[in-house]
Specification:
Layout lengths: L5 E2 H4 L3 E3 L26 E15 H7 L5 E2 L1 H7 L7 E5 L2 E6 L8 E4 L1 E5 L3 H8 L4 E8 L19 E6 L8 E7 L9 H8 L3 E2 L5 E7 L12 E9 L8 E21 L11
The protein binds 2-acetamido-2-deoxy-beta-D-glucopyranose (4 copies).
One 2-acetamido-2-deoxy-beta-D-glucopyranose binds next to α3.
C-alpha cells in the first residue's frame, strides 16, 4: 500500500503518478519525473518524495496492534539491526513490518491497520479499502508537500521538515512530524534497512497483499538526490496508535523514490519475497 507512504506511509508519503490507474491512492507532490514509467508502461508506477522514519516502540505495543494470529519475526529484524534495544520493535510510521503472515517463520510482511489518504482523492479511499485497511481521509499541512523541507522562519528553522495531518472536525493535527536534516553519515539504520522494510509486501485483512516495489537506484535517489538522514519528533494521536504518543529523536531519511505497485496479489504468492 503504498504507502508506504507513511502514514505515515502515506500520510507520510506524497506521490506523483504518471499512469493514473484507479488503484493509485497517492497524492501528487513535487518530484522529478518518473524515471521508470516508460520502462513499465503496463504497470502502475509513480514516485514518492517522502520521509521514512523508524520508530522504536515497545515490543508489547507492537504485539497488541499486530493481530494475535500472526507471529513477529524478531530474529529477522535483530539480524538487520544489531544493537537494537531489547524489547523494542521497529515500526515505521504506522506500519508494522516483520510479520509472519504465512506462518512459515521467514517471509516478512508489513501490517497496516490505518492509512492516511488525501481526502479529495476517492481512488485513494477505495484503493485502501480494497485491502481492508481503514482509510483516514485527511488534509495535510503543508498541502501536497509531505516531507517538504519547509522553513516557516528562515532565521531559526532553516531546513526543518514539518508535516502535519488533519482530519475533519478536529482543529488540532492528528499526526505531527518535525525533522531536521543531519550530517551524513548518521543514525542507527543502514540504507539497506529502509530498503528492506519499505519493500515488505503489505496487508491488512490478508485477503490480498500489496507488492509495492521501491527503486532506490534511479536518478531520483542518487547523486545530488541521495537520501538525506533526518532526526526529529513524531506525535501520533489515538486511535491511530492505541494511546496518543510522542516519539522523540526518531531517525529516518528523506528521499524521492520511484515505485512499481502490483496490487491485490494472493499473499501466498509473496512467500519468501526479497527485494533485490
Ligand atoms: C508488471 O505487471 C505484470 C502484470 O500484472 C506483472 O506480471 C509483472 O511482474 C509486473 N512487473 C514487475 C516488475 O513487477
Ligand atoms: C523532493 O522534494 C524536495 C522538496 O521537498 C525537493 O527539494 C527535491 O528536489 C525533490 N526530489 C526530487 C528528486 O525531485
Ligand atoms: C528483509 O530482511 C529479512 C531478513 O534478512 C529477509 O528475510 C526479507 O526477505 C527482507 N525483505 C525484503 C523485502 O527484502
Ligand atoms: C534497480 O533496482 C531494481 C529494484 O530493486 C532492480 O530490479 C534493478 O535490477 C536495479 N537496477 C540496477 C541497474 O541495478
Amino acid at each position: 500500500m503504498g504507502l508506504p507512504c507513511f502514514l505515515l506511509a502515506l500520510a507520510f508519503c506524497a506521490v506523483s503518478i504518471v499512469d493514473s490507474k484507479p488503484f493509485n491512492r497517492y497524492r501528487r507532490d513535487d518530484s522529478a519525473p518518473n524515471p521508470i514509467g516508460s520502462q513499465y508502461p503496463n504497470n502502475v508506477t509513480g514516485t514518492l518524495n517522502q520521509t521514512i522514519s523508524i520508530v522504536p516502540i515497545p515490543f508489547a505495543l507492537a504485539r497488541s496492534i499486530i493481530p494475535a494470529q500472526y507471529g513477529i519475526l524478531t530474529a529477522a529484524y535483530k539480524s538487520l539491526l544489531p544493537g537494537f534495544p531489547a524489547n523494542s520493535y521497529p515500526s515505521f510510521h504506522i506500519s508494522y513490518p516483520f510479520v509472519d503472515l504465512l506462518g512459515d517463520g521467514y517471509s516478512s510482511f508489513q501490517y497496516q491497520e490505518y492509512l492516511f489518504v488525501t481526502s479529495t482523492n476517492p481512488y485513494a479511499i477505495s484503493g485502501t479499502e480494497a485491502y481492508g485497511t481503514i482509510p483516514v481521509p485527511a488534509t495535510f499541512n503543508p498541502p501536497d508537500k509531505a516531507y517538504a523541507f519547509t522553513c516557516p522562519d528562515p532565521r531559526k528553522n532553516k531546513g526543518d521538515i514539518f508535516f502535519d495531518a488533519y482530519v475533519p472536525g478536529n482543529s488540532q493535527p492528528v499526526v505531527t512530524t518535525k525533522f531536521k536534516p543531519m550530517p551524513a553519515p548518521a543514525g542507527p539504520y543502514s540504507l539497506n534497512f529502509f530498503v528492506n522494510v519499505t519493500n515488505q509486501p503489505a496487508f491488512t485483512d490478508a485477503l490480498a497483499c500489496d507488492n509495492q516495489i521501491f527503486y532506490y537506484n534511479t536518478t531520483l535517489s542518487q547523486g545530488a538526490n541521495a537520501p538525506v538522514t533526518i532526526k526529529g519528533d513524531i506525535k501520533v494521536t489515538a486511535p491511530y496508535l492505541p494511546t496518543t504518543s510522542t516519539f522523540k529523536n526518531v531517525w529516518g531519511i528523506k528521499v524521492d523514490l520511484a515505485f512499481l505497485e502490483n496490487n491485490l496479489l494472493p499473499c501466498g504468492d509473496l512467500k519468501g519475497y526479497q527485494h533485490v
